[in-house]
Write a structure and sequence with these properties.
375 residues, 5-stranded mixed β-sheet, 11 helices, 30% helix
């Protein structure tokens, strides 16, 4: 076992030093056979051409980076279970979440969920109010000017419907009930074509847009739902919201909360916020957005771990997830959960801390960075 460990370390060192020896060696030896090894050990960018003029949701995939350590982590403390609420059937709409429907008044939300744990700006120009019990029974809610619910999201088992759709329902069942997902969203004179994705469907019924997210690693079962009132959806006139500091802070907060909610839902402990590595994450997102690239290695050749070391971040092991182009942290997070390497980082039980960083390029497209640590 010890020999195997040192052999893995040797391969990792050989890979990291590849830029130093690849060019001179390739003059004499065909090293093309190493490309599949790169794909397993490193992080090759897999990026599809996206015409943002007709795409409503841009998607991207990138392999996660891991850092191996010989130190054994301590056993984590699992969050104590919180009782699930009794779910009633919705009264006025097709779906409810934690007994809250679109149009529910704030007083009902407070009676059902208590006070929010955090508030953060979302891409619709309203606030997500986040409710949870140690990241269990996780719900995000937005209110309109009259303090009635105009958006709800959950990635927890809190979904109730008059048709039987619930957390864990199959994609086939959802489509049998809702019909075919819509292909485009019309806003004024503009038509935004929805990118086909195995990871989510969008349905429109009455005054509601229903976004249904599926877990591709669990046989396409429903893993999250977002309900958006048509009036709120129509307020968002473009593909992306403006990329100001307030929205950046909101996306960072939401990405942190979504990651912890996913971990706790899978029986893991929530991660603690780490300000130092959050700065590293944000700086990398800024660098990618400003210099038009998407990679774990920056243009100076520095890896995530080089950047953490430069910033004085201490850790025993670490990992990084990247996402680009998704219109919100919800879409970024759900996409990462459907990518095997990123999902592994999110659900790695040895991590203890997390920092998230977001920045926007000149087209307002977001770049997301997650840096995970074992302290």
């Amino acid at each position: 076992m010890k020999r195997l460990f040192f052999f893995i370390l040797f391969l990792a060192a050989l890979y990291l030093a590849k830029p130093l020896w690849e060019q001179p060696v390739s003059r004499y030896v065909d090293i093309s056979f190493l490309e599949p090894v790169d794909e397993k050990i490193g992080s090759l960018l897999k990026k599809e051409s996206v015409d943002t003029a007709i795409r409503y949701i841009a998607d991207s995939a990138d392999k996660a980076v891991f850092y191996l350590t010989s130190k054994t982590p301590e056993a984590e403390e699992v969050t104590p279970k919180v009782e699930k609420p009794v779910l009633d059937k919705p009264v006025k709409t097709l779906l409810s979440i934690h007994n809250i429907e679109l149009g529910s008044p704030e007083i009902q939300v407070t009676a059902e969920l208590g006070e929010p744990k955090s508030r953060s700006l979302n891409e619709y120009g309203s606030e997500w109010l986040t409710y949870h019990n140690d990241y269990q029974n996780f719900v995000m809610i937005s209110f309109d000017e009259e303090r009635q619910v105009n958006a709800i999201y959950t990635n927890d088992d809190l979904i109730s419907s008059i048709s039987g759709i619930k957390y864990g329902s199959s994609k086939t069942t959802v489509r049998e009930i809702f019909g075919e997902p819509i292909k485009e969203i019309r806003k004024g004179l503009n038509i935004y074509v929805l990118q086909e994705s195995e990871g989510f469907d969008v349905f429109q019924s009455g005054d509601t847009y229903t976004y249904v997210f599926y877990d591709l690693h669990q046989n396409d079962k429903v893993t999250a739902i977002q309900l958006i009132a048509t009036a709120l959806e129509q307020k968002k006139t473009g593909i992306y919201a403006g990329g100001d500091a307030q929205l950046r802070n909101g996306f960072e907060q939401q990405l942190f909360d979504l990651t912890n909610a996913a971990r706790v839902r899978h029986g893991l402990a929530a991660l603690e916020w780490e300000a130092n590595v959050a700065e590293t994450a944000r700086n990398h997102s800024i660098d990618m957005a400003d210099n038009d690239y998407f990679s774990h290695q920056n243009k100076l050749g520095k890896s995530p771990f080089d950047r953490m070391d430069d910033d004085g971040v201490t850790y025993r092991s670490a990992g990084e997830n990247l996402a680009y182009g998704q219109s919100s942290s919800i879409f970024a997070h759900e996409g990462l959960m459907n990518s095997a390497g990123h999902r592994e980082n999110i659900l790695l039980d040895t991590y203890s801390h997390l920092g998230t960083g977001v920045s926007f390029n000149e087209k307002s497209q977001p770049y997301y960075t997650e840096n995970f640590l074992l302290k």
